[in-house]
Amino acid sequence: MAIQLDCLVAVLLAMTSPEKNPFIIVAIDGGAASGKSSSSKILAERFNLLHVDTGSFYRHITYELLRLKVPYSDLPALRAALARLEFGTRLNGRSAQMLIGGQPAGDEIRGQNVNEHVSHYAAVPEVRQALLAYQRGQTDVAQQHGFRGLVMEGRDIGSVIFPNAEFRFFLHADPAERAKRRAAEGRQDSITERDRIDSSRKTSPLTCPAGAIDIDSTFLTLEQVVEKMAGLIAAELK
Ligand code: CDP
Ligand code: CDP
User: Fold this and answer.
1) Are 177 and 192 in contact (CB under 8 A)?
2) 154 CB under 6 A from ligand 1?
3) pTM higher than 0.70 for the full model?
4) I need a surface site. Which of 29, 47, 93, 187 has the fewest CB within 10 A?
5) CA nearest ligand 1 atom 4, residue
6) What is the pLDDT of residues 68-111, one digit of tens each?
7) Beta-carbon contacts of residue 46 (< 8 Å; ≥ 6 apart)
8) CA of 34 relative to ligand 2 center, distance in Å
9) Which letter, b or e, does each residue of 146-159 get, where b requires 16 or more Cβ atoms within 10 Å of its Cβ?
10) Do 151 and 50 form a contact (C-beta atoms < 8 A)?
11) Taking CA 66 as the corner, what is the angle to CA 63 and CA 70, rounded to the nearest 5 degrees?
C-alpha cells in the first residue's frame, strides 16, 4: 500500500511539476491563407494546446461594429461602442470561441462584408487595444481547462501579444498560391488587399518579427509545414 501511495504521489507530482511540464506558448503569424488556422489546429491536437484564432476575434468585433453601424473612421463613436462590448470565452472543442454580450459569432464573420472591412477596423489602435488583455488572458483559459499551453495565430502574436513565446513561427506563401488555396475552399476573399492594409498600418503591422522561424509554404503541403513546426517543438520539449 505504501509503495502504491508513493507511486501515486510521484505520478501526481510529475503531472503538476512546472519544470516537467512547463506551460508553452506557440505563436503563428502570417498573411491571409498562409496556413495558420490549419496548422494551429493540428498542433493543438498533437501537443494538447488551446487553439486561439485571433483573426476570428477581429472578425467578430468587425461584424458587431458593422451591425451597430459604427464606422471605423468615427473615432468617438468607435470608442464608445468598444467600451460597451463585453467579451467572454467558451470552448469549442480545443478552440477558444469569443463571446460578445454572451453570444458566439456566426458564419457571417467569414463572409464578404466582414472580409472587406476587417482590416480597416483592425488598423485602428483603439480596436487593437480593446483586444490586447483579452488575448493575453487566453493563457488563463488554457490553464483553467487543463491544456499544456496554447497556440495562438494572427498577425502580431510573436511581435506584440507574446514576444517571449517559446515558439514563434511566421508563415508566408506566394500570393497567387494563397489565392488558389482560398478559391479551393470556395471562399471569396480579397487577400491581397487585406495583406496590403495589414502590412502597412502603423500599429502592430503584419511582419516577421526578429528571431521568429520563417517558413515559406508555397511549395509545401500542409503536412510538411506541420511536420517542420512539430519537429522543432518536440525537440525542444524533450
Ligand atoms: O484567415 P485569414 O488569414 O484570412 O484572416 P484572419 O486571421 O481571420 O484575420 C482577419 C483580419 O483580422 C486580418 O486580415 C487582419 O486585418 C486582422 N487581424 C489582425 O489585425 N491581427 C491579428 N492578430 C489577427 C487578425
Ligand atoms: O489561417 P490562414 O488564413 O492562414 O490559412 P488556412 O485557412 O489555414 O489555410 C488555407 C487553405 O490552404 C486550407 O484549405 C489549407 O488546407 C490550405 N493549405 C495550407 O494551409 N498549407 C499548405 N502548405 C497548403 C495548403
Assistant:
1) no
2) yes
3) yes
4) 93
5) 32
6) 999 999 999 999 999 999 999 999 999 999 999 999 999 999 99
7) 230
8) 6
9) ebbbbbbbbbbbbb
10) yes
11) 135
Residue 4 within a domain: no
User: Residue 160 is placed in which grid cell?
Assistant: 506584440
Q: What is the chain's percent helix, strand, coil content, to nearest 5?
A: 55, 20, 30
Q: Judge whether residue 7 has pLDDT over 50.
A: no
Candidates 54, 136, 159: which one to mutate for ligand 1, based on the most atoms within 8 Å of Cβ? Answer: 54
Q: Which of 64, 192, 193, 198 to mutate to test the pocket of ligand 1 (most atoms within 8 A of CB)?
A: 198
172 lines ligand 1 (CB under 6 A): no
CA of 148 to the centre of ligand 1 (A): 25
Whether 2 is in a domain gets the answer no
Regarding the beta carbon of 33 and ligand 2, being less than 6 Å apart is answered yes
How many domains does the chain fold into? 1
Residue 16 counted as domain residue: no
Residue 73 cell numbers, joined: 473612421
3 in any annotated domain? no
**How confident is the model over 105-152, as pLDDT tens digits?**
999 999 999 999 999 999 999 999 999 999 999 999 999 999 999 999
Give dist(CA 180, CA 178) in Å, integer. 5
Range of the domain at 105: 23-237
